[in-house]
Amino acid sequence: MLRIHVEEKCNRATLRLEGKLAGVWVQELERCYQDALSGPDNRALVIELDAVTFVDDEGRSLLREMHEAGATLVGRGAQCRHLVQEIQQQGTG
Amino acid sequence: MDFERHYEALLEMADIMGHHRSLPELFSELAKRLHPVTAFELASFARYDPEKKVMQVHMWERTGSAGAPTEVPVESSPSGWVWQTQQPLVVRDLQVEERFPRVFDLFREKGLRSYCVIPLTTAQRRLGALGLGSSQLNAYQEEDMRLLGRVAELVAMALENSLTRQALHDEKERLQTLLEISRALVSSLDLKQLCPTIVESLGRVMKVDHASLALCEPEAGGLRVHARSTPVKGIEVGTFITSLDSVAARALREGKVAFFNRSDPRMERSLAVSGLFELGVESGCCVPLITSKRALGTLNLASTHRSAFASADIDLLNQVASQVAVALDNAKAYQEIADLKDKLSKEKLYLEDEILTELNFEEIIGESSALKRVLTQAKIVAPSDATTLILGETGTGKELIARAIHRMSSRKDASFIKLNCAAIPTGLLESELFGHEKGAFTGAINQKVGRLELADKGTLFLDEVGDIPPELQPKLLRVLQDQEFERLGSARTIRVSIRLIAATNRDLADSVANREFRSDLYYRLNVFPLRMPPLRERSTDIPLLVRYFVQKFARRMNKQIETIPTETMNALVSWEWPGNVRELENFIERSVILSSGSVLKVPLTELRPVYEQSSKASTLESLEREHIIRALRETRGVISGVKGAAARLGLKRTTLQSRIQKMGISRTDYEG
Questions:
Q1: I need a surface site. Which of A18, B115, B495, B653 has the fewest CB within 10 A?
Q2: 0.90 exceeded by the pTM?
Q3: Do the chains contact at A81 and B353, CB–CB below 8 Å?
């Protein structure tokens, strides 16, 4: 189960994720991400991963795509921080 | 001569009685036949109407033309007097007669001078009266009265037959009505469709133009309209009727049919009824819908005819209402069951999700080739329904992979039932597996459904299958081969469809060699063996697992741990983890408890013996190894049991097996 909170403020949309980013929930996040993209052109997109408990390979790929498309990934905690760092390093590497 | 004419006229009339189609036609014909033998200008037939308590009077002129029937109060009518007293009435001169002025004034206007009335009565009931009027003075003599008496007997019989036929016809129509309404209720309980059906069906036997159903809402203290046959202002579906003075509320309060009429001044206050009156409704009734348990609401009927609903209709209305009430009650009970089932199903899904989330059965953490190889094999075997044997040390995640196989199989929507064969006393294991009937053995105070039955159409996971006692092994083999078994204490064979996944940390081949495990069961279980790699063979997964567990426990303990020092991680990766992932998980939980800041604080001293690879530790390990080999030699390789090596060393069997494996002790070390 993944819960996605969408917060839209001025020039910024935040997708706050809670639970497992795996299986069918990856598609659900992608749908929300596409909706968020359809907003104003120059607004920032932030993906908050603090409350994510598990990410499968597909979820990881989607996060990477979002990062490459300009979304900011934010994650606290040993696992999420490592995940964000890993994706960012792959992006720059 | 008169006698012959009378006799012939009576025969003709008797013939007509047998062939008439309707009462008006009968009287018209009778009047024609009667005229040649008795002088009269006007014939009357009066019938008592028990509903209205009046005399319904029909009149025929000599020419055969009939006037419209009129209602005359019993006490104002000469026919009424005859009907009441059952005596014939002969008025020889109407000019001097003072009784019954309302009727006799009319006769006098028509030029009649004399009049006679004979009662129409059968053995069963008093029906009415037959009358003749003549323009001649004193026209009816004794002989005429005798003839009329005979004619009256014939007419009464014909009338009785006609009334019986009508009653039978009415009864048939009522039964047909009930049948139609029953059929409509049985085929579907669509309330929207029910009201038009009721109007149509009841229309056979009474003048119904509108029907509606109002159901009780006790919490709100009123009734709510749920369906109606025709749009009526004030009786829209969903309208709430609160007024205690409403006709429907009266019907419910009194538990009987409540009638209403347009002429009733109290009706003006009711919004719902005034809507009906705007549509030309003249009368109506509300029938309470009552079951043996409760009052459900009212069936409301309305008609554009005055006094359309008579007390004679009450029985039928109550029968219809009773059927509607039972059907509504059943529908309500069914709905409650469906709601509960739905709720249970949702709760089950929720709980399953909770279990998966809590126990992390869904996630298998790791990217090592050793783990990926096992996952690939699991994906291959999952859809095949084949029995799977998962081998591996304790704490390697055998149950996790078993659940993953179940989830990837076609049985994923059915249950995954687990049984740890080592955790249950031997004596109870059979009962746990197969179930038992009440009284099957001392202590079997209730019937119990076994895990095999619970796992029907799903997956049964037998953990520690190597610990199944020898006497139970043939029974399990039979279930695997034939998919059938009997509960303890029952002769009834139960057929099931089960996919078995077994797991063990024992070397089953060795157990077979030691005659601790049946070879036929071993081969039956060993269809597709999967070996879970110990954590030391997938050390590249340790950082992932450490981060995962740190985040999991930090969240649970409401801590924020951001950093795991490199030295700590290296130490964790270097440790051999004899207890595998379970040991790592427990160790990390302990570490998170000990960590107060954002850095994970690990009690590294617990890992040092292996991490530092001290020579002293090696010596201790070699001493331990030698001690175990000695014990095995003394017990001739037997590990379990009271005379086994585990008991001699004061260790659990599984612990000893783990150490033997870890230290690489083989059979050649202690044999020969």
A1: B495
A2: no
A3: no
